[in-house]
# Entry
Amino acid sequence: MSTLAVHDHAGAHHDEHGHEHHHDQSFLSKYVFSMDHKMIAKQFLITGITMAVIAMILSILFRIQLAYPDKTFPLLTTLLGRFAPNGRISPDFYLALVTIHGTIMVFFVLTAGLSGTFANLLIPLQVGARDMASPFMNMLSYWFFFLASVIMLSSFFVQKGPASGGWTIYPPLSALPKAMPGSGEGMTLWLISMVLFVASSLMGGINYVSTVLNMRTKGMDLWKMPLTIWALFLTAILGILAFPVLVAGVVLLIFDRSVGTSFYLSDIVLNGVQQPFEGGSPILFQHLFWFLGHPEVYIVIMPAMGISSEVMSVNSRKPIFGYHAMVYSLIGITVLSFIVWGHHMFVTGMNPFLGGVFMITTLIIAVPSAVKTFNWLATLWRGNIRFTPAMLFAIGMVSFFISGGLTGIFLGNATLDINLHDTYFVVAHFHLVMGSAAIFGMLAGVYHWFPKMFGRMMDEKLGYLHFWLTFICAYLVFFPMHFMGLDGVPRRYYAFTEFASMQKWLTINTFVTWAAIIAALTQFGFLYNFFVSIFKGQKATQNPWESNTLEWTTPVEHLHGNWPGEIPTVYRWPYDYSKPGAEEDYIPQTVPYSQTMSSNLPHDFEDNPAGLEELNKFTSTLKANEQVK
Amino acid sequence: MLLGTNLLMAQTAAGAAPGQEEAPKVDWTGIAYYVLIFFLICLGVAIVGKILKIYDLTLKMQGKKGIKWNTVMAVICIVFLFVGLYGAYWSFTEQGSMTLPEAASAHGVKIDEMFTVTTVLTMIVFFVTQILLFTFLFQYRHSDKRRAHFLPHNNTIEKVWTIAPAIVLTILVVFGFFTWQKIMNSENLKDDINIDVTGHQFAWELRYPGKDGVLGPKDFRLVTGANLLGVNFKKKSSFDDLKVDTMYLPVNKSIRLNILAQDVIHSVYMPHFRVQLNAVPGLPTFFKFTPTITTAEMRTKLDDPKFEYTLYCNKICGGSHYNMQKVVRVVSEAEYQSWLSRQKPYLNDALRKELHFAAANNEQSGASTNRLALNN
Ligand code: HEM
Ligand SMILES: [Cu+2]
Ligand SMILES: [Cu+2]
# Structure
């Protein structure tokens, strides 16, 4: 039914615009207000990459401040004007930089950029649908995201600068415009931007969930879906359930700021002046924020996990090890991630018993994470590994996830968190597990599905260079930070010059800054590769990675509706790589068992007795034949 | 390249020094120099890329297979493993030795023990998994002659590696839970030393109780220029309270920090004692601990005559968040008492005047001041 609807809609376009251009669609409806999921995916990706580059440049700016706290850089004044008087970034602007860097990276790059790109691209293509359940809402989702991005960036142009209370915007700091310059208009813009962002994310998420549930092609039951789809599907559910809570928190904050309510405020004396607020609780905001905030970190990592699983299976030429365990651990993470948010609040003054409970739930969530890691390792074991750039990034994702996940076990232990909370140890933890692992998952996806998106290949050698430099530099940047945290060095400090005990870290800070600069410059290599390959890359073949999943059965040239004829039927799971007895080392999902008698296993027919009988007959005749010989 | 920076820094610093009033001049040549270096590197990469391509082509023309990139990557993986392992070791020894000294509080010792156990367990997992990851990559690199081993699942081993981490984590959770409860729920003792720590932008205010050992109550409505904390002088216990500048603590005595913030959230962080608790406006909290090592002892231990314990803010609170500190000195009981006897009362002359003034006003006339007093 839905297939039909999409056809109709494509037809309508034809009627409207067909005579204006040689193409089916006008430029506007093809490239701008497109309702084709593949185009929307590209819009999300390119906007996400743009935002990532901006956030990366912000991070280099504040890294320079940390490495050279006493030096002046007149160029900064030229570039930033009042925000960097006398060649040095001002303390308030430093905080604005870390705030906007964090906000953009977490929400605009790793949520919208990652899920937006790959859910849009892969869900219809991998489940076998002609488009999303609601292409119109899908388009709105992108444009809300775009608007949110523009508003977030516009806050650099207001008088007092962007929001600067940290990406977690805890009130009262964010609620009292007089508490810091960034809590003025900058904060207002941040809040507006986030409301639009959540709207975008909800429209996207509802689409993803309904498409996965209702529009799978014939034969594609849930247990035949690739892990990318499972991950994106569960991510969307997480987002739908968690993001509204952020809106609730944000709306109450808007009330406190503009209407004079006291949801989060109480007993405040600011600069010697009593404020009229009574009875509110700043902790309430933290509960609401982290009720989203923790699921959010899994919203960020789960698509990366799904992408890495798929890419690693394809390029090891081996089925993903423990497909069911992989799905169940994703489900486990999804459910558990709703009941661990309090681990961000162990030392806020929250009831200590609650802290104890959250510690228990938090360490439980480490179990599914561990299972996934071991399963990835087992997938590589005795594989036949091809090192495409995508594969390297997927491997990097696993390495970072191990390194960063393990420090989560320290932080999840409330007792240890007393001394680690808000130090560089936390910075190291989440940059490895999110800033590195999730970004690498995203890059793996970009390299792997670039041929699907643009019909051309990216340059492999440049991809290798990109991977190794980024991989090494990311470790150089984040590994030493653990030790700074263990020395009690706090995050979000403008300079470490005021403390005798922290000055010894200056050399490390300089080292880290230079590693970060090299990593950042390396990304220009990626950008070059990406944009040049869109136009000049080698033409892609239909299935360049010899992969089993459905998206590679569509033609290289995009068409609205994905498959020229009927949507193919699915007969098997997506991971029949290197099956003994098969001709090739991969068997696409569209190949029925009847065509692969020599490689079928009894296991393939667990819920199909007729097929099993067929197989038994086949094997017995085979045996009989052999005996005759 | 790093040398170049120093040069640039020196130049810009020199350029900025003489005319402090006028805007510092941008050193365009220095910047051009950097841009040039960047382009040279890009050019180098491009040239190497071309050479590789040509080499690859000639190999192919000679009927050979071309560069085996899979093997190259596999070799880099294994090299990375060894270099990375050494790097991790180096970081552990070099930067690891720059971390906090042993805990200077009773509960801190327990935290450190737990930290050590967690570190050992997690580092075993870290090294084993990373080594497996990169050796697998090397060992199972692509070969046309081989096929991967078709292994979709193995329920036994999957059960093992679900249950094993579950057991280890349960152990950590159980110990963590009980230690946490003990640290956070310690009972109030009679001879606890109560210290009032109040955060505001951007300083900490410290108040000690007087002889009665009781801190007078506070109310934010009473805050004035002279009564920064809003101490309520309707209560007797307030009169002997002391306002202090450095936090002196007697060694081996139970300390109770009473923590509050006035404007935004701050965080009382005393890492040497493994103490941290947020200071939240409207939500008074407390943290109890017992310092066990005096400042003097720590100085000899660390061989650093200038060492000081510090208390600093660890929750983003505005522009000067990075400089919101107090010195903490742990001393013997005798030193503590003599220091205490030298501290000035919170109720200083200015405040006396202010309160008297209000009281006098109150007697003479004015319903307005009366209302203010009632509010108190
Ligand atoms: C192995 C499971 C994990 C555990 C047990 C864990 C535990 C924790 C804990 C307890 C904190 C709070 C630390 C503090 O503020 O004192 C934290 C912070 C954080 N974690 Fe994790 N984590 C895990 C995995 C992840 C993953 C997979 C991600 C993201 C992809 C992530 C992202 C973050 C972020 C962004 C923060 C810092 C938030 C902030 O304060 O700005 N964590 N983690
Ligand atoms: Cu969390
Ligand atoms: Cu503070």
Summary: Chain A is about 65% helix and 0% strand. Residues A 294, 297, 340, 343-344 surround copper (II) ion (ligand 2) (CB under 6 Å). The domain at 36-263+277-536 of chain A is CATH 1.20.210.10 (Cytochrome C Oxidase; Chain A). The longest strand of chain A covers residues 269-270.
